[in-house]
Design brief:
- The chain is an all-alpha fold.
- Among the domains are: about 80 residues, no CATH class; about 70 residues, Serine Threonine Protein Phosphatase 5, Tetratricopeptide repeat.
- The protein is globular.
- The chain starts with a helix and ends in a 5-residue tail after the last helix.
Length: about 550
């Protein structure tokens, strides 16, 4: 530590006359110091000996300013942002601004008037259009309006990526007639691909329209597109991920060796499908069939089986599969360690989870953010939040985070423990730490928290912050807010947000509308109920076609 202390003195007392040469030397020395600590601390699971020392090099919390040492050491790099980063930041800001404008005018249905009334001077580019469409993924009708507006702008010609993003958005709100109209447009322009039809198949499957999902896949040949093995695997995966493994198995059994010859990936997809359903009997049958077909389980197969046993809470068998894999000379991946840490941690088997964390550190793989996040979660499940914060500090030291997901995990457990004020403080600090800015998932967590606490005033404050960032709420967030407003008898607000939900093309869940309807009837507002019911029915039965 003496050499480190000496280095500290040299950095704390720079000679300003040395100018840029001295500053560059400082950066090199600091990089060497960081590399030394990372090698000794992160890779080989050294104890937290350097942690107290290293706290002096960084802010104590996301909201605190950096020390003078940190600032002087890294100021050159902070000011030299790469051009592509600057452009990316500009695109992100423009995307947020456009989404904010559109979300504030989603009742008008006129994107052109919304953009003009906002008096915004933004050059519309192909990349910007694509980014806005991505951000409107939860608002299919709004995305369609923007898509049609954008294609009229100078220099804009939609790409297959733009079409596919819109197809995904419209599929989420079950506007399949419009989806097929877009397919025809793509066909006419020669840009229809198997990816587009696979997207449609997936949206049908998610909507529990299994027959239509398979029909969409089989339409490839009608459009002159020949499915290959990877396409069959993708269909089987789609059916499995939409909780239809029995149909996936049926397709596999009927088409195997007739339409396609399966590979090991075909089998691992089925393993995962049955594993998600915790059907270990069928999982083992597929594993035997895979071996009989000449495919020995690989690291991916073992990872899926370990995850399946963990999900079924058969932890003994999961750990045994890990050791079986190791005996066969198949080295576990970071994903497998992450799975075991998550599973054991969630059962409050903290010491076992931490053993796998130590094994991960010595596995030869660089530790990744998901593995650290699993450890954060393991400590949180045992309500050792202070240890979770310590792991967050270690992540900073090792340069692998934290990220938004890290804080989402902590927020979830703070809220579960009714530590609302602490959760809100953590949420507020997220904006101050690069890479940890709240996501739509974070906003949903916070809105739900305040709704459950009957603090709709705070829920709306978070809601407005979210809208200002250009994020658009989904069905679950609307449901939480409208249910809470109905419960607190703030019916005018509840109806306003219900209308916004319909304007975005989001179909409200039946229980939520039932609650709102009953609250309105209790106040003698039968006319309002009839008006909302008519609007809802219109959304349910109407398929937009232009």
């Amino acid at each position: 530590m003496q050499s480190i202390g000496k280095t500290m003195e040299q950095h704390q007392n720079p000679n300003p006359k040395q100018g840029l040469v001295e500053a560059n030397h400082e950066c090199s020395a600091m990089k060497h110091l960081l590399a030394t600590i990372r090698r000794s601390h992160c890779r080989h699971a050294a104890p937290f000996l350097q942690l107290a020392y290293y706290q002096s090099l960084k802010p104590q919390s996301p909201s605190e300013p950096a020390t003078s040492l940190t600032k002087s050491s890294w100021s050159i790099h902070e000011n030299a942002m790469p051009i592509q980063d600057v452009n990316g930041l500009q695109i992100a800001k423009q995307t947020d601004r456009i989404c904010q404008i559109l979300s504030n005018h989603n009742g008008s249905g006129n994107v052109d008037s919304a953009m003009k009334s906002a008096s915004v001077e933004i050059k519309i580019t192909q990349l910007l259009v694509q980014e806005v469409l991505k951000k409107l993924s939860n608002a299919g009708l709004l995305a369609l309006s923007f898509f049609r507006w954008a294609e009229k702008q100078k220099g804009i010609k939609h790409t297959s990526a733009s079409y596919n993003t819109l197809i995904e958005s419209l599929g989420k709100v079950k506007q399949f007639k419009m989806v097929w109209k877009l397919v025809e447009e793509m066909r006419q322009q020669g840009m229809l691909s198997k990816d587009s039809l696979a997207l449609i198949s997936r949206r049908y499957a998610r909507a529990r329209k299994v027959k239509e999902a398979i029909d969409a896949f089989e339409s490839m040949e009608k459009f002159g597109l020949r499915p290959e093995l990877q396409d069959y695997n993708r269909l089987i995966d789609t059916l499995c991920k939409s909780r239809h493994p029995e149909k996936a198995q049926q397709v596999f059994d009927e088409w195997k060796n007739k339409r396609f010859k399966p590979d090991i990936k075909s089998y691992t997809i089925l393993l995962e499908g049955w594993g998600q359903e915790q059907n270990l009997l069928r999982l083992n049958e597929v594993c035997r069939e895979m071996r009989d077909d000449g495919f020995a389980p690989d690291v991916v197969s073992y990872g899926i089986m370990i995850h399946a046993y963990c999900k079924a809470k058969n932890y003994h068998e999961a750990v045994e599969k890990y050791h079986e894999m190791e005996r066969k000379g198949i080295k576990a991946t970071p994903h497998i360690y992450c799975t075991l840490i998550n599973a054991l941690g969630s059962e409050k088997r903290l010491s076992e989870a931490l053993k796998f964390f130590e094994l991960a550190k010595t596995s030869g793989h660089a530790l990744e953010a998901p593995t650290y996040n699993a450890v954060v979660g393991a400590y949180c499940w045992s309500m050792r939040i202070h240890n979770a914060y310590r792991i967050v500090d270690e992540m900073r030291i090792c340069g692998v985070g934290p990220n938004s997901r890290t804080y989402d995990i902590i927020l979830h457990h703070l809220i579960k423990a009714h530590r609302t004020q602490e959760a809100y403080a953590v949420f507020q600090k997220m904006n101050d730490e690069p890479g940890c800015e709240p996501t739509i998932s974070t906003y949903e967590i916070m809105v739900r928290m305040f709704c459950n606490e009957e603090r709709t005033d705070m829920a709306l404050r978070v809601w407005n912050q979210m809208k200002a960032k250009g994020f658009l709420p989904g069905m679950h967030m609307f449901s939480s807010l409208i249910n809470s407003l109905s419960h607190e008898n703030k019916l005018e607000d509840a109806c306003r947000y219900f209308q916004q939900m319909l304007d975005m093309g989001i179909r409200p869940p039946t229980p939520m509308f039932k609650n709102l309807k009953q609250a309105l009837l209790d106040e003698g507002k039968e006319d309002t109920v009839l008006t909302l019911a008519k609007k809802l029915e219109k959304l349910r039965v109407t398929q937009i076609v232009s």
